[in-house]
Design goal:
Layout lengths: L2 H11 L3 H51 L8 E2 L6 E2 L2 E2 L1 E2 H9 L15 E2 L2 E2 H4 L6 E3 L1 H4 L26 E5 L81 E5 L4 E4 L1 H4 L28
Antiparallel strand pairs: 1-4, 2-3, 5-6, 7-8, 8-9, 9-10
Helix pairs in contact: 2-3
C-alpha cells in the first residue's frame, strides 16, 4: 500500500465535526427524554414506599385492637413518652403503636423530606408527636373536650358499619408549619387529620355532628380557609384545603381504611357525601349523602 492510500484510510476512520455534533445532539435529546422518566420512576418508588408505611400502621392498628378487646388505639393518653409536654406525660397514637410497628422510620413519609430539628428537638425524639401520617381521630378516638386528657374515647372496631369505607389513616402535612403543639392543652392535633365536614361553631367548640360525635380539630379544616391561623400556612399539596391531609402523589391523598386496605384517592372522592370542592370555604361544606360519607361509623 502506498503512503497516500494509507493516509486516506486513516482520515476516513475519524469522526468529522458534524458527526460529533450529531452524536452530542442525539445524547442530549435522549437525556431530555429519559431524565423525566427517571424522576417519575423515583417518585413512583417513593409513593410505593409510602403506601407500605401506611399499611404497616394499619397492621399495627389492627394488632393493637386484638390485644385491647377490639378497641382502637386512642389519639393519645397520659403515659410516659419520649417528651414531656408542659411537664406532663403524653403518648400519641404513634408511640402506642410502636411496640407493634417496631419502627420509627415509617412515621415519616418518603415523599417529603422531614426537618432534622424542630424547635430544638431532634427528630429521633419528635417522631411520635409529628408523624407524617394522620389519624382520623374523630372517627376512632373522638374528643369531648380539649382540656385535661381530652377524653379520647377508643371505639370498638365492630362499630363500623362499612369497614371498607371508613377512614383510619391518611398522609399528613409536613413539619414546615409549626402546629405540633398548643400550650395549655393536652391534646395536640399534629398527630391527626380532620374530617371534611364540621358542624359549625368556634374553633374551640365546633363538633362533627356525626356518629361518633366529636370535637373538630383546632386550626385544621377543609376548604380555602382550612389552615387559617397557622403561620406560615401550608400549601395545597401539604393539606391547606384538605384538613391537613397531604396530596403528594399527583394531587392525590393516601388513605387507609378499617378493613386494612389502602389506596390513593382524589380529594373529592375522600370527601364523598359532602358538597366539598376545591374553592369552597370551610363553613359552606355540608353533608349531602350521609351513606357515602367516609368519616363516620354509619
Amino acid at each position: 500500500m502506498n503512503p497516500r492510500s494509507y493516509s486516506f484510510i486513516m482520515r476516513k476512520s475519524a469522526f468529522t465535526l458534524i458527526e460529533l455534533l450529531v452524536v452530542i445532539a442525539i445524547i442530549a435529546i435522549l437525556a431530555a427524554i429519559l431524565f423525566p422518566v427517571f424522576a417519575q420512576a423515583k417518585q413512583a418508588a417513593k409513593a410505593t414506599a409510602s403506601l407500605s408505611n401506611i399499611r404497616q400502621h394499619m397492621a399495627a392498628w389492627l394488632m393493637y385492637a386484638d390485644d385491647n378487646q377490639d378497641y382502637s388505639v386512642p389519639l393519645a393518653n397520659q403515659t410516659p413518652g419520649p417528651l414531656l409536654f408542659d411537664g406532663m406525660n403524653y403518648s400519641p397514637w404513634g408511640q402506642l403503636l410502636q411496640p407493634y410497628t417496631k419502627s420509627v422510620d415509617i412515621t415519616q413519609d418518603p415523599l417529603t423530606a422531614p426537618n432534622a430539628i424542630e424547635n430544638g428537638i431532634p427528630t429521633n425524639l419528635l417522631w411520635p408527636y409529628r408523624p407524617q401520617y394522620g389519624y382520623a381521630f374523630s372517627v376512632w378516638s373522638p374528643l369531648t373536650t380539649f382540656s385535661g386528657a381530652g377524653d379520647p374515647k377508643p371505639i370498638s372496631l365492630t362499630e363500623a358499619a362499612s369497614p371498607a369505607q371508613t377512614v383510619v389513616f391518611t398522609g399528613r402535612k409536613s413539619r414546615k408549619t409549626l402546629d405540633w403543639r398548643f400550650v395549655g392543652t393536652v391534646i395536640w392535633m399534629a398527630q391527626a387529620v380532620a374530617p371534611p365536614y364540621c358542624g359549625g361553631g368556634s374553633a374551640a367548640t365546633a363538633m362533627t355532628n356525626v356518629n361518633p360525635q366529636s370535637m373538630c380539630a383546632i386550626l385544621h379544616r377543609w376548604g380555602t380557609d382550612g389552615a387559617s391561623g397557622l403561620a406560615p400556612e401550608p400549601d395545597d399539596v401539604d393539606g391547606k384545603r384538605t384538613g391537613s391531609v397531604s396530596l403528594r402523589k399527583m394531587r392525590q391523598a393516601l388513605v387507609a381504611f378499617s378493613d386494612g386496605h389502602a389506596r390513593y384517592m382524589q380529594p373529592t372522592a375522600l370527601a364523598a357525601g359532602t358538597n366539598y370542592h376545591w374553592n369552597i370555604t370551610s363553613t359552606q361544606i355540608q353533608l349531602t349523602q350521609r351513606e357515602k360519607y367516609l368519616w363516620d361509623l354509619d
